[in-house]
Specification:
Blueprint lengths: L4 H33 L1 H8 L2 E6 L2 E6 H26 L6 H26 L16 H9 L7 H25 L6 H19 L9 H14 L5 H9 L10 H25 L12 H31 L11 H10 L5 H10 L3 H27 L12
Antiparallel strand pairs: 1-2
């Protein structure tokens, strides 16, 4: 039997809050490690090769790529499960409730790209246009936690819904813009893996270990196909049944078990492996690196705020959607500012967009600067409001 929506929401927000704090700690450790301990030790660890498999049936990647291509597939699997549930059974199923955060998210995707391109200009720096698109729900919810009961539950759920739609856009960007030459034979094997998983679900198989082989085949085939390996998680989520199997809600059960692992293990490891950037390094002395850093930061701070705020106000003006409970237009502006906290997906897209170290470090510096500034602006705006009776004490 499904749990009440309020219970699921409270549990989700608690996990996001804890994960956000873990993410912040890991990012801080990476920054201190690089800027105090030096870049060489940090890079040598994450550049260590690790080989998994037997003989020719093995894959050799460095530790950073195993995290980015392997563990992050769990993150994208979980995101896709959440999107699927929200569309079919959650808030996004109700057009009136979903309209405002969806339109706000779309504004918050398009305008940051335009701001980025206007600042970055042409050439190689322009390749980072996808970096300021996404909102980091875990980071944003952790920031909201410092305000306590000044922020109603409706505001948190609005921000999470917006981030979910942002993530769909980010997944599409990764699938289209960062896919290399395709290998048809590996794509065929990917399809076979998906069919095998779907067949097991259809047969009512619930023993997790029976899914290990087809899931591994699916990931390896995706990795070798030219499609980014994390999209194996997206494809796998499409196979998970929405309706109960033998009386068990498989989709909600997977979310319940994987959310803590993703929030407290996968994302902190990702931050530790990717957030290390020398803040006084070559990136900020190189003209193109400076331009990328400024473009990313302005895309997150100015672009996100303008896109989310203008799209939201337009939706309200034309009565396409309505404000969540306990949220007024003033607090909506604070949430629009917080939407500029990009972090996880922004850091994920950065090395896909850039291979030049100065541009990559510039992008990371811009993500840090933009996310921190967006958090400060958003918290300041929201803190000026009063207490809300609708806050969730358990979240």
């Amino acid at each position: 039997m499904d749990r009440p929506i309020r219970d699921r929401a409270s549990e989700y927000l608690r996990d996001e809050q804890a994960g956000g704090f873990a993410l912040l700690v890991a990012a801080a450790v990476a920054l201190v490690w690089v800027n105090v301990g030096g870049v060489s030790g940090y890079e040598s660890l994450w550049a260590t090769d690790l080989r998994l498999g037997l003989g020719e049936a093995s894959i050799t990647e460095d530790l950073r790529h195993w995290i980015n291509d392997g563990l992050m597939a769990v993150f994208f699997f979980l995101i896709s499960l959440e999107v699927k549930r929200e569309i079919l059974r959650g808030e996004l199923r109700h057009p009136k409730a979903a309209a405002l955060p969806i339109l706000a998210a779309l504004g918050g995707v398009v305008v940051p790209v335009l701001v980025y391109l206007a600042v970055a200009g042409s050439g190689e720096p322009a390749q980072g246009w996808g970096i300021p698109m996404a909102t980091d729900a875990a980071f944003a919810i952790a920031v909201l936690a410092v305000l306590g009961d000044r922020v109603p539950v409706g505001a948190k759920l609005f921000l999470v819904t917006l981030a979910v739609v942002d993530d769909v856009a980010a997944i599409c960007v990764i699938a289209v813009a960062f896919t290399s030459d395709l290998a048809p034979e590996w794509l065929a094997l990917t399809a076979i893996g998906l069919v095998a998983v779907a067949a097991l679900f259809r047969a009512g198989v619930l023993r997790w270990w029976l899914y290990v082989v087809p899931v591994v085949v699916l990931w390896v085939a995706t990795f070798e196909s030219g499609v980014h390996a994390t999209l194996a998680g997206v494809a796998l989520a499409l196979m998970v049944p929405v309706h109960p199997v033998r009386g068990r809600n498989v989709l909600e059960g997977l979310e319940h078990r994987l959310h803590p692992f993703s929030s407290l293990v996968v994302l902190p490891l990702f931050a530790l492996a990717n957030a290390g950037v020398a803040l006084g390094g070559d990136a900020l002395s190189d003209p193109e690196g400076q331009r990328v850093a400024l473009a990313v930061a302005l895309g997150l701070v100015v672009g996100k705020f303008a896109g989310v705020a203008l799209a939201s106000l337009a939706a309200l003006r034309f009565r396409i959607g309505h404000l969540p409970e306990g949220v007024d237009r003033r607090s909506l502006m604070g949430l629009a500012a917080l939407a500029g906290i990009g972090f996880t997906v922004s850091l994920f897209i950065s090395p896909l967009a850039f291979t030049e170290p100065t541009l990559l470090d510039g992008a990371k510096a811009g993500v840090f600067a933009g996310s921190v500034l967006a958090a400060v602006i958003g918290v300041t705006m929201l803190a000026s409001g009063g207490r809300h009776a609708s806050h969730d004490r358990s979240a």
